[in-house]
Design a protein that fits this description.
The structure is a homohexamer. By secondary structure, chain A is mostly helical. In chain A, helix 3 packs antiparallel against helix 5 and helix 5 runs antiparallel to helix 6. Chain A has a single domain, classed as Four Helix Bundle (Hemerythrin (Met), subunit A), CATH 1.20.120. At the A-F interface, helix 1, helix 3 and helix 5 of A face helix 1, helix 3 and helix 5 of F.
């Protein structure tokens, strides 16, 4: 991974210095991966209830609401990725781009039968937990 | 408060019995006052930044984003009040209706100069903390 | 109900006096329960059409649109409850909190088979009619 | 206007016959210009309050909320124009297209100083009243 | 069609002159029928995939997403009709009102089985192509 | 950059093989960076009009609408990044993650005075043009 870091470091040395906190004076500086996690817990719970109920009205509503919840998971993750994390974070955690891309792809769960599988929803929760861990490390730094 | 409880009790005795958990088999059973709290923290942080920056572009964006965040606070509180809490909860916590009504009114912060006052936003956070306390008591019950 | 009123009266006597109209200088003072009623009529009509058509594409679209309409019913009712009605109204109509809570719960119609039952939608319309009656009494007062 | 009618008549005679009610079996058949009117009353009330209050926070919120209300006026009118009204209506009321176009343009009130003028908002209400009159004539037909 | 034009011309001669560009100084003057076209291509692609996959989860998601895409087609067309096109355009292209009305009706595709028929979606694309042609003629004028 | 590619290659060799087109069978496979570009052109045009008009009502509306347009730019870019682009694309174009992150950060244009600067909006358009170039290369591959 070192050459990736080196190229990035080089690019940044040739730019005017950018202090992290200077980016973030609005909206507000309040971010919390809990927002994505709560919605993803909802996705998982819906998958479980879908599996346990064969009534077509129930199932259609379940898919509908799951779709909206998944959109919210994606949105909360996208906001963290674009608005909270800054170049120095990506430099320190080079896996962060891919982590967010995989997490939002999982949240999208595009079209496969797996999309009502609680196991898939748990994978999404695991990815969010990885992001959450990094998030709080950067907050304490 | 006892007569209120009595009337409610009476009404319920004459109805077919309603088990709490039976109401809630979809969307998902996942609720968390943290959603309202995070948005309210955002409202407070925006108020503080508004006070510290006189640039009109900044201030207009601040009001805009604060308005959206306040709407989200209201929405998350309304969902808790309507979808999570059930008649037995309102019976046990008779102040709950008024608490939610005051909290959503505070979140609306309708039109007064106070609406960019971090102190008002703190009051909102305090109300949400009261709701949060009751919420977790009902979850453990 | 009288002891509820008494406690509320007491609480208010110890607070700074609050003139009703002072709360409401923005958004605009325009409220009308017709907004909730029209959406609820739509919910009922959709239930009726759902019952009369077994085509799965039609039924899925019906559930989808009914879900959105129900959300709008809830939203319009929540706005009335939080933004239009003020403490003196709740003092005069102590059943108002519960009425709104039951109406929005009915609008949610969470997950039961009853949710495509026009009879349930009619109950929702009846609740909204009760709210509407109180609303216009308070407007004339 | 007669030649317009004639051309339209001709076109329709060569098409398979289309019964009006056949178009409209979902969403629900419930339409009411009151939805547009209530939002437009809100727009007018906001204009009046804007004129009477010079506080910049108040005025920014007023513009923000007015913008949303105007969008809703447009949306409700567009839905009536596209979903409720059918070719036979446009044949009978050939001014209807232009009426809706002018009403939605007024609702947009694009960018001129006039957009906080209650007089402009009244013009919008007048246009909606014209549409409302035609709407109820077609309902009774 | 000529008498329609004549009546419209007459009405305009008796009004204060209206320069086209004067209407349009905000939002921004940027319009492009490509927005409606891309969403309509999405609608058509979803219809094709719906036809080729009988899994009920897939089909429900397909209907859900198609419904949202259709709403976006309608919205983009409505914005063009109300915000971009001005009275002189409607005078020059008297079929424009009807073209937009038919296109948005097709986008709505209300409730018939045809709504998952790629052929219907192609008709929508054809209508948008007609609008697109006129749009670019007016841009070059 | 080669070591980044190598690590990614390694990771993929140890995973079950994933054919690109298999991910994308719903929503629809229709993507087009034109959606982001049109909204970004709107952002730039609004900046230009903001600079040329000092009326506070106009300027507030300009900021309001620009904020919404910027959100749409971000949303369209996020959808491309998460839903269209797949691991083999990120392997072939290792700068893609950073390109999207910078483009969405520019679209956010968080809080600085630069946010009404047409030059900043042009930078956003340039980033989108880079993404657009890669997008069409991958479509032709």
């Amino acid at each position: 991974m070192s050459c990736f870091v080196r190229k990035e470091t080089l690019r940044r040395l040739m730019q005017p210095r950018l202090v992290v906190s200077a980016h973030c004076d609005l909206p507000c500086g309040i971010y919390d991966p809990a927002q994505a996690r709560i919605e993803a817990e909802s996705v998982k719970a819906i998958c479980e209830k879908y599996q346990g109920n064969e009534d077509p009205v129930f199932r259609t509503r379940a898919l509908l609401i799951k779709e909206q919840r998944s959109e919210l998971v994606k949105h909360h993750l996208w906001v963290l990725w674009t608005d909270y994390f800054k170049p120095p974070h990506f430099e320190k955690y080079p896996e962060l781009h891919q982590l967010f891309n995989e997490a939002t792809k999982l949240a999208g769960a595009t079209g496969s039968k797996g999309s009502v599988d609680p196991g898939e929803a748990q994978k999404l929760l695991d990815k969010i937990a990885e992001i959450d861990k990094i998030f709080w490390e950067t907050k304490q730094a």
